[in-house]
Amino acid sequence: MTASPWDLRIARARELAKSQPSAAEILRFYANVAGFQKTVYEELRAAPPQDVSVLRPHLPALFVLVKRLGPPPLARAAEELANNYEQSHDLLTDHDAAPERAFFARALLQPYFEYRATSSDIATGNVQPTCPFCGERPQVAVLRGEGDGGKRSLVCSLCATEWDFRRLLCPHCGEEAERKLPVYVAEEFPYVRIEACDTCRAYIKSVDLTKNGLAVPVVEELATVALNLWAEEHEYEKLQLNLLGL
């Protein structure tokens, strides 16, 4: 039986937590969150939802998980929200929530929109900077071998839809001049690179599956937080923060 995307993410996070000590705590926490998201996803698949209100009953379990295993800022936010149900009730529709609170909405909305995306007929061949299904920004880019070159695609930060994108094109401002689109690779992560833009100063990480076919792009993006620090030091801004706000 083929493993589900959730199982692949969980297994990869646990594997990388053993080999990447600098990101081990983040990865172990993510593995537990992904396990929670898998449960939500499977319930949605068993009983197709009408709207996001079906997610609210899952909030208490998410608060418990984060209070027990989450980093201090998230654990404190979980405690506050658990003690104030009125605030937590509006989490799923609050688009201006602080980062610590936005995490809880994102953790529930990701499996919801991923279920909806996988149940829909999405045109993924059109080159566009945002997700063709939900309109969100991409979380990570992916490189695959194709002919004598390579094919680049983007992965949505919300519904995990993957769609085609040009190799030499900034997904933020549309810059296409090669000299303004530098690529940076760190020795410790030879298959993950920063694809930056000197016009808008945005960057996105790209996972090269021709160099590591075992990589799971969403997890590798989390595991390489050291690259974020390098990019920030060189005054690049991340195109889209990940689930953990990094």
Descriptive key words:
2 domains; 8 helices
Write a short abstract of this structure:
This protein has helices at residues 5-19, 24-46, 59-69, 72-82, 85-89, 99-118, 217-223, 225-233; strands at 138-146, 149-156, 162-165, 183-185, 192-196, 202-208, 237-238. With 246 residues, it is α/β, with parallel strands linked by helices.
Task: Provide the fold topology.
Blueprint: H1 5-19, H2 24-46, H3 59-69, H4 72-82, H5 85-89, H6 99-118, E1 138-146, E2 149-156, E3 162-165, E4 183-185, E5 192-196, E6 202-208, H7 217-223, H8 225-233, E7 237-238
Parallel strand pairs: 1-6, 6-7
Antiparallel strand pairs: 1-2, 2-3, 4-5, 5-6
Give a description of the structure.
This protein is α/β, with parallel strands linked by helices. It has two domains: about 5-120, no CATH class; about 140-240, no CATH class. About 40% of the residues lie in helices and about 15% in strands. The protein contains eight helices and seven strands. It has helices at about 5-20, 25-45, 60-70, 70-80, 85-90, 100-120, 215-225, 225-235, and strands at about 140-145, 150-155, 160-165, 185, 190-195, 200-210, 235-240. Strands 1, 2, 3, 4, 5, 6 and 7 form a seven-stranded mixed β-sheet that branches. Helix 1 runs parallel beside helix 7 and helix 4 packs across helix 6 (about 100-120). The longest helix has 23 residues, at about 25-45. The protein is globular. The two termini are about 35 Å apart. The relative contact order is 0.13.
